[in-house]
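$ fold --in a.seq
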Amino acid sequence: MSDYSVRKSLLEQIEQERSSRALLYVTGDRPGMETQISDVIDMVVDHLDTMWPANRISLILHTKGGNTAIAWQLVNLLRTFCDELEVVVPSRALSAGTLISLGANRIVMTKQAVLGPIDPSLNSPLGPQIPGSPHRAAVSVEAIQGYLNVAQSELGITDANALASIWNNLSAQIHPLVLGQIYRTRQQIRDLAKRLLEHQKVELQQAEKIVSFLCSESGSHDHAINRREASELGLAVEKPSADFYEMLRKIEASYVEELMIRVPWNPDTQLAGNPSIDYDVPRALIESTTHGSHQFASKGTLTQLSIPNPNGPPQIGLKDERKFEAWQKVA
């Protein structure tokens, strides 16, 4: 059952505290049932229409990232519905979530909140095959550049033939069309980030430094940027008041509990000895005080299978029959 009524009360308190309209967007990161920023534009428009006109919108964001093109579209959409946008981070807004944050007038971060690098990884049907798996690996945009930098800067390779050989070896592992798309994506993400930073009134030279750090100089896509480091980078960061902090802790506790973010999804555990069970798992949320709650959910049936084995006893398998996987309005 949805705890929207609890969060609605907290969103109302946040709107009073911030003199704004509040929008909650959570992409759940429950292990085994993770979600990412994806095409939610139509649903967000439904919420924004009911907020109009709004002087300020407070986007309360929890995400590990997702589609950077959608992140760009989303932040620009939000800005068309208000005069001032702030992104509020109770816990984490990583990767594409950080890109959204760059487009806000300010980023409100709790003591434990983190942002992250915005170097994207490219998923492609032409990507390298994962050994022993039918799936293909995502290719990190900055990892490719790092590989080439090692050859030139660290190993001092400058001979044209040697560099051509290195490039040929790379293209033998990663399809040339993927490499081409990677370089386009690398430049695009830098351009988008610089354009978004204009809303924080960051001077061009400082914006270049911020983008370079977020795209490559942080050293790893897993690097966590806390409130102090974000402020030292030059981002427009604000600390929440004591009362606002308590509101954010409560609303985070509510969506963490509803989406069971800290409880891994394990089909064997879900079955718990039963031959078959139905499941209904909420995985992401978009909510406001003016237009209720949208929830992304997966519904289906888990069944334990007995697979004949000519060389011994039957093997035990699992069948996951996914019957529904979409957004739905629940309140």
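$ fold --in b.seq
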Amino acid sequence: MAFYLDAKHVKLTDKPRQYEAHRKPGSKPPAPGIYQCQSCGFEDVINRECNELPPCARCLSGTSTWRLLVKAKNKTRKKW
């Protein structure tokens, strides 16, 4: 479960399909963010450098799948 302090830093998605899909270990993650193992509920952070989703570190099930919970996205900053 993700928690946040300031609602202006999170946004409800208008593209739910990317959050509904279950992805197998070894597949390319669609975005960096927080993923949840669908076998045991463990949540893991996947960063921008990750090319393949790993097996779950808690249940070590090679047959488990991951679901994207929170997508991380860079916010463009104004130059000073």
